[in-house]
Amino acid sequence: MSTLEAILLAIIQGLTEFLPISSSAHLILPSQLLGWQDQGLGFDVAVHVGTLLAVMLYFRKEVGTMFVAWLETFKSRQVSSFDGRLAWWILFASIPAGLFGYFGNDFIETHFRSALVIAATTIVFGALLGFADIKAKQNVDVEKLGFKGAMIIGFAQAIALIPGTSRSGITMTAGLMLGLSRDNAARFSFLLSIPVIAMAGGYLTLKMLTGEHHIDYSVLGLGSLIAFISAYACIHWFLIIVNKLGMMPFVIYRLLLGAVLLWFVFS
């Protein structure tokens, strides 16, 4: 992998990990459209580390408060605070994605990593996001989401293992359909991404350590840094944009991208 490819792929990972447009789709597309070689497990691990650090740093106050409240639940043997409940909701809601990823990853890698699948999921789930953004009531606080609502979003997150779906897109769609405001749906999606990105990074790291892979640490370090910077900036600006313009700019982008991919597949 060249330095230019590493920089571009890291920027793509950092931007699309948290935008509702599918990071996996955009990382697959360079190889499908430009003939680039697969970036390899080591690079995947590096960009996952970068995006994980970005979301944890951006939401450091919320993460710290939830972690302290979560530890308090063990001491008091009850969940009395909202932050404690939220921490448990996020942990339990991450289980479906973990199980789907562990048992279904190889099948998905074999059968769903294609431009046609990406085109279909980009259009279908983009349209669903647009429908949710227009039709949802958006008047429910995160505190009223409840364990059931959190698990619904968690199961929606598991669907994002299919390339082109978008983890952030499907979780925000589910949040909007459950009545969360755009800002709350986005923030819950970002917090929910923390354990999932950590699990994915851990799984990829284990695969890398148990196999024979050439590791260029300078490229990995550069990729991790670029992914961190772009992801942090993306979170900040996305929350501003979504509160002013809603989800429609991303819906339109997804529909256009899907149309271009269909043209590419059938041309």
Automatic annotation (TrEMBL):
- InterPro entries named in the record: UppP (IPR003824)
What is the organism of origin for this protein? Thalassotalea agarivorans
Q: Where in the cell is it found?
A: Cell membrane
Principal place of residence: membrane
Other remarks?
Bacitracin is thought to be involved in the inhibition of peptidoglycan synthesis by sequestering undecaprenyl diphosphate, thereby reducing the pool of lipid carrier available.
Which PANTHER family does the UniProt record give?
A: UNDECAPRENYL-DIPHOSPHATASE (PTHR30622:SF4)
Q: What processes in GO biological process is this protein linked to?
A: cell wall organization; peptidoglycan biosynthetic process; regulation of cell shape; response to antibiotic
Q: Among its keywords, does the record have Ribonucleoprotein? A: no
Q: Which superkingdom?
A: Bacteria
Q: Which GO terms describe its molecular function?
A: undecaprenyl-diphosphatase activity
The protein's job, in short, is:
Catalyzes the dephosphorylation of undecaprenyl diphosphate (UPP). Confers resistance to bacitracin.
Q: Recite the UniProt keywords alphabetically.
A: Antibiotic resistance, Cell membrane, Cell shape, Cell wall biogenesis/degradation, Hydrolase, Membrane, Peptidoglycan synthesis, Transmembrane, Transmembrane helix
Annotated TM spans: 40-59, 86-103, 115-134, 146-165, 185-206, 218-240, 246-266
EC number(s) per entry: 3.6.1.27
What protein am I looking at? Undecaprenyl-diphosphatase
